[in-house]
Design goal:
eight-stranded mixed β-sheet; about 10% strand; 8 strands; globular; binds NADP nicotinamide-adenine-dinucleotide phosphate; alpha/beta; Rossmann fold; binds 2-acetamido-2-deoxy-beta-D-glucopyranose
Length: about 325
């Protein structure tokens, strides 16, 4: 009897823990987006896709900026069906190629008159190099989005009040930027082991936070605000490139502790839509709430230095 009660107790506590701590808050904004245009990068799967569905349901014209034509067009059909909107468009964008970023921006600026919300969501967790020779996670998670954001900034300013949202990660807490390594090797750090992969991922996610901070400063006096965020731990394809054995070990644990993609896009939606958070521009969010970051992510020198180095890398 006691064992059963104890077991029931543990289950209830675990359930409450899951509801409140894992799942977290929901975006409560009821904002409609008719006549507004939104770009979501990496929206063919994962939280990018559920974000795109939600925004399309609110009436926005949604641009799916994805690298694979085949995967992007398959998602396009699904997003149209799920949202009941046909204001959804696929445009090819490979963030691992500065040339592709430029050509995406050119096509977009020529064909679309507005841009109200830019959601920099795409991200990778794997080793490699981009077309331009940058370490892959730095190149895709940071540099590609840096160039994209800069090329679209004028249009965002013209359409203000507008927003930029950067999907970072809790992992940014473990990040560090080694400017010397970046300068000489086009990489945040060298090394190809499993743990180094997570370390570089964390560094690249710290870049997102630093940039949001620097960007907010540069956007003062405009009607453009920007936010970075941790979406939570979500069951997506982000781990698809890691060891299948580790994936198998993680699956039972993850199905309990991990959010699904609807739950996982709530903080992104909050940052994109919630009225009255404009004074928090440049800040980092988690669980639909603004959070403090380490002093390292706030000091003035690093964000500025990273900005300048990124400008040089992109030849801006
Ligand atoms: N899942 C989590 O627990 C978690 C936690 C913290 C932060 N995040 C962040 O949340 C964001 C979304 O991740 P997710 O979990 O939804 O991952 P996901 O399911 O792997 O989706 C990532 C998306 O990014 C795209 N992408 C990758 N490389 C690209 C490139 N070079 N150019 C354009 N698009 C590219 C992918 O396209 P393909 O389909 O073509 O690969 C895919 O659409 C990422 O920034 C990730 O770092 C996730
Ligand atoms: C999210 O916020 C809610 C409400 O403020 C809180 O109860 C919950 O513990 C938070 N969850 C996390 C993971 O911080
Ligand atoms: C998002 O991150 C990219 C790359 O780190 C950066 O260039 C851009 O300014 C950031 N935007 C916001 C809103 O944080
Ligand atoms: C910002 O938007 C407000 C209200 O829409 C407008 O009055 C103001 O002129 C805009 N400011 C800039 C710098 O565009
Ligand atoms: C996620 O879970 C919630 C609650 O169980 C459910 O309403 C929602 O449809 C799920 N979303 C996905 C994409 O499975």
């Amino acid at each position: 009897m006691f064992t059963i009660l104890l077991f029931a107790g543990v289950v209830i506590v675990a359930y409450i823990f899951r509801c409140f701590v894992v799942i977290g808050k929901k975006c409560t904004s009821k904002v409609k987006l008719h006549g507004k245009t939104v770009i979501v990068t990496g929206s063919n799967t994962g939280i990018g896709k559920t974000t795109a569905i939600d925004l399309a349901k609110r009436g926005a014209r949604v641009i799916l900026a994805c690298r694979s034509k085949q995967r992007g067009e398959a998602a396009l059909q699904e997003i149209k069906r799920e949202s009941g909107s046909n204001q959804v468009v696929f445009m090819q964008l490979d963030l691992g190629s500065l040339k592709s970023v430029r050509s995406f921006a050119e096509t977009f600026l020529k064909s679309e008159p507005r841009l109200d919300i830019l959601i920099n969501n795409a991200g990778v967790l794997m080793h490699g190099r981009t077309e331009d020779g940058f370490e892959l996670m730095f190149g895709v998670n940071h540099l590609g989005h840096f160039l994209l954001t800069n090329l679209l900034l004028e249009r965002l300013k013209e359409c203000g009040p507008s927003r930029i949202v950067n999907v970072s990660s809790l992992a940014q807490n473990f990040g560090k930027i080694d400017f010397n390594c970046l300068n000489s090797h086009k990489a945040l750090r060298l090394g190809t082991s499993f743990t180094q992969m997570f370390q570089i991922y964390s560094d690249s996610k710290l870049c997102n936070v630093l940039f949001t901070y620097e960007l907010a400063k540069r956007l003062q006096g405009t009607n453009v605000t920007c936010y970075s965020l941790h979406p939570g731990s979500i069951k997506t394809e982000v781990l698809k490139d890691i060891n299948p054995f580790v994936q198998m070990l993680l699956t039972p644990i993850s199905s309990f502790f991990i959010k699904n993609t609807t739950q996982g896009c709530q903080t992104t939606l909050h940052c994109a839509l919630q009225k009255g958070i404009e004074h928090l521009s440049g800040r980092y969010f988690s669980n639909c709430t603004v959070k403090e970051v380490r002093a390292k992510a706030k000091d003035d020198a690093a964000p500025k230095k990273l900005w300048e180095m990124s400008e040089k890398f992109c030849q801006l």
